[in-house]
Amino acid sequence: MNLRKCGLLMALSGTCLLAATPAEIETKINALISRMTIEEKLGQMSQSSFPKGLPDRARGEIRGGRWGSFFNGGTPQEKAEAQRIAIHESRLGIPIIYGQDVIHGFHTVFPIPLGQSASWDPELVRQAARIAAREASAVGIHWTFAPMMDIARDPRWGRIAESLGEDPYLAGVLAAAMVSGFQGEALDAPDSIAACGKHYVGYGAAEAGRDYNTTWIPETLLRDVYLRPFQMARKAGAATFMSAFNALNGVPASGNGFTLRHVLRDEWGFDGFVVSDYTAITEMIAHGHASDAQDAALKGIRAGVDMEMVSTNYYDNGKALIDARVLDPKLIDQAVRNILRVKFRLGLFDNRPQPASTPAEQPSREALEIARRLATESLVLLKDRNGVLPLAKSVGKVAVIGPLADSPTDQMGTWAMEANRSAVRTPLAAMRQKLGENRVVQAAGLKTSRDTGSTGFAAAVDAARAADVAVLFLGEESSLSGEASSRSMLDLPGAQEDLAREVAKVGKPVIAVILAGRPLTFHNLAEQVNAVLYAWHPGAMGGPAICDVLFGDAVPSGRLTATFPRTVGQAPIYYNHMSTGRPAAESGAEANNKFTSKYLDVSFTPEYPFGFGLSYTAFEYSNVRLSSPRIRIGEKLAVRADIANTGKYEADEVVQLYTRQLAASLTRPVRELRSFRRIHLHPGEKKEVLFELSTDDLAFYREGGELTIEPGAFHLWVAPDSASGQRAEFWVVR
Ligand code: NOJ
After folding, report:
1. Can you tell me which atom of ligand 1 is nearest the CA of 99?
2. How high does pLDDT run on average in the chain?
3. How confident is the model at residue 7, as a pLDDT?
């Protein structure tokens, strides 16, 4: 409880319970631990999904201190009752911590995280997380399993939908924004929930993009790329972390003492707790790392996983391991201490309210407004031939075609189990509202995105004929991305391309709006249509957001945070790759050199690069200037550039700063994002953008965890995307 709240309490009741200091919390934890039995300690280290219906057996277990945490499930009344039993009927009165996957909203569903990242707008992302925290805490949830900040370089991996894009810096900035939104100003405020950085670590590097698959990541890459967003989330105060499913360099991430103890605890000083992913402790047996349940418990606890999710190896074997003197009981105390510390920080011991009623699920006006803005900013315009967009509001009739034009579930995407479905506004509904019923002609054409039939095509063609413009809502239904939803093909599933071809034949302008949880490949479709707008799974307010952009009430400003391949065969593909000794060239004499790093049958470049997105207006970048051509290690470089809006629309631009070190003891990526700004420009307006680059931003890891800045020559770009921009050069010297 913070002092401000205390002031209010004083005024109301004349008494005040001051927040415990960290030292007082430690004293309380020690006092508790000294009274706990081994069973009670192992109970704190155990988490199960909420026991459905809260049967007598579960009540008895809670009374006996068997469970430290429940997740995903239980009505507010059941949760309040279970908490009452834990606090008032268990021997030591230790409260339960309730977790839940609150990934991109709760009752109000925001765009999927990959979509949110395309906004490049940390403040808006923070506000969305704040709203999710308010809605979730109102039904008694204390803790969300978010943000997810796995770096994925392979769109086959279905969980790329939950990620914050391929760049470690951007993902870290956005993860930190989410942490701050979830946790609010004080963790013990009744509307704050604890964040959980996941999946620690390397999960997004699953070989061949197949979920749960093995990962091999050299330590330097692990630190430069995969760990970096986690470290930023840690700095932002993330209360907990989740250990991942994958094996990392031969050791399961949930039994990995190097990442969990050495890096997270010793190097980063993390003092919250680590929860395993779902049955990840048991899965160490299938990985071939643990011989049996006892061994799995031993390896998980030793590695530093404090709480076991779902499987019960800790509880079943912890005591025997201690009795046999195989496991040091101090490790158990350490884990329990970490868990209790977070429970104290959340105010669970200080009468944190445990709401027992179901509050109105209807999203607030503010929540819907944020959902609409975030969805709008996440939309990426990929193609706009001859400026077909925005559509004139005076356009006669619009044909709304495709399986995703009116599918609330699909537009919400993965992880939307608590969504208020009645608040979802589909593109079809929004279009009807904008234009009036009689100016919208609708035909789904296909029942779902996977539908391979063509019986609906004739109606779709008729709709296009009857209209002045056709808008096709294509892509992937929500079940095709997220956990356990990897794909080996990235094409539009089902007969969607065929449908688009038939509609295009009608000869009217055709706009494709693609809703998906990953970068898809749709080269042929893009050739046939006049414009392509990428909408991800845009959440509850996706419909109005899309219509605002189509009709110019908003100008598209989203920029890709994942590289879009031309074909699945290019995966893994990402902008911050190394050069190789034989880099391929797109133009000039080298373009014809066969013996460079490329393919015979497709270009080596992506279809759309990281950072890319079109606007209705045009931006001109000029006059990049540096405060100095050389800086010493420890100094700062001021980078200035002029950005002008030379088009007709008032719009946002995302200005990106990249660098490349030309030579170093370890090869460096061809570009690395160092900073970005979302700026707003009126037509004809020019703004100077200033970036402050410190030499710390240029540091990289050597083997053994040594962070280094090496002197040398650098290129720098102020750019609208990772494949273009205005270049300058500078030197770092000792
Ligand atoms: C498994 C998923 O990998 C993880 O992200 C999620 O938080 C847990 N299940 C709990 O639902």
Report:
1. 10
2. 96
3. 41
Rounded-to-integer distance, Cα 358 and Cα 514, Å: 36
Residues labelled as active-site residues: 277
**Among 244, 263, 264, 265, which residue's Cα sits nearest to residue 253?**
244
Averaged pLDDT, 604-616: 98
Helix (H, G, I), strand (E, B) or coil at 694: strand
| Distance, C-alpha 220 to centroid of its chain | 23
Q: Given a cut of 80, is residue 508 above it in pLDDT?
A: yes
Q: Which residue in the block uniquely carries the two structure tokens 């942490």?
A: 179
- Reply yes or no on whether the pLDDT at 8 is more than 60: no
pLDDT over 80 at 155, yes or no: yes
C-beta separation of 574 from 662 below 8 A = no
| Cα 242 to ligand 1 centroid, rounded to whole Å | 9
180-225 residue pLDDT tens: 999 999 999 999 999 999 999 999 999 999 999 999 999 999 999 9
| pLDDT tens, position by position, 299-339 | 999 999 999 999 999 999 999 999 999 999 999 999 999 99
The protein residue with its alpha carbon nearest to ligand 1, atom 11, reads 101
**Percent of the chain's residues with pLDDT above 90:** 96
Q: Whose Cα sits closest to atom 7 in ligand 1? A: 145
Asked whether the predicted pLDDT for residue 708 surpasses 80, the reply is yes
From residue 417, how far is each of 388, 409, 412, 711 by CA, in Å? Answer: 37, 10, 10, 51
Domain parsing of the chain, residue ranges: 8-350, 379-547, 619-733
Q: Which of 48, 254, 309, 414 to mutate to test the pocket of ligand 1 (most atoms within 8 A of CB)?
A: 309
Question: What pLDDT shows up at residue 398?
Answer: 98
* d(CA 100, ligand 1 centre) in Å: 9
Distance 162 CA to ligand 1 centre (A): 11
Which protein residue's CA is at the shortest distance from atom 9 of ligand 1?
Answer: 278
Give the dihedral of Cα atoms 413, 414, 418, 420; nearest 10 deg.
Answer: 0
List, chain by chain if needed, residues with CB within 6 Å of any ligand 1 atom: 72, 101, 145, 198, 277-278, 483
Pick the CATH number of 379-547 from 3.30.70.270, 3.40.50.300, 3.40.50.1700, 3.50.50.60: 3.40.50.1700
CA of 149 to the centre of ligand 1 (A): 13
Q: Burial code of 299-338, b = ≥16 C-beta within 10 A, e = fewer?
A: bbbbbbbbbbbbbbbbbebbbebbeeeebeeebbbbbbbb
Q: Which of 406, 312, 366, 391 minimizes the C-alpha distance to 556?
A: 391
The rounded Å distance from CA 260 to ligand 1 centre is 18
- Quote the CA–CA distance of 536 and 519 in Å, as a whole number: 9
Please tell me which residue, 14 or 660, carries the higher pLDDT value. 660
Pairwise CA distance, residues 140 & 81, whole Å: 11
Domain 619-733: which CATH number of 2.60.40.10, 1.10.150.120, 3.90.190.20, 2.60.120.260: 2.60.40.10
Atom of ligand 1 nearest to the CA of 145: 7
Distances (CA, A) of 353 to 7, 73, 76, 83, 349: 18, 18, 12, 10, 10
Q: Does domain 8-350 have CATH number 3.40.50.150?
A: no
| Atom 10 in ligand 1: residue holding the nearest Cα | 278
| DSSP bridge pairs for 608 | 564
Fold agreement (8-350, 619-733): no
- Lowest-confidence pick of 17-21, 400-404, 481-485, 595-599: 17-21
**Residue of 50, 101, 211 best suited for mutating to test ligand 1, as the one with most atoms within 8 Å of CB:** 101
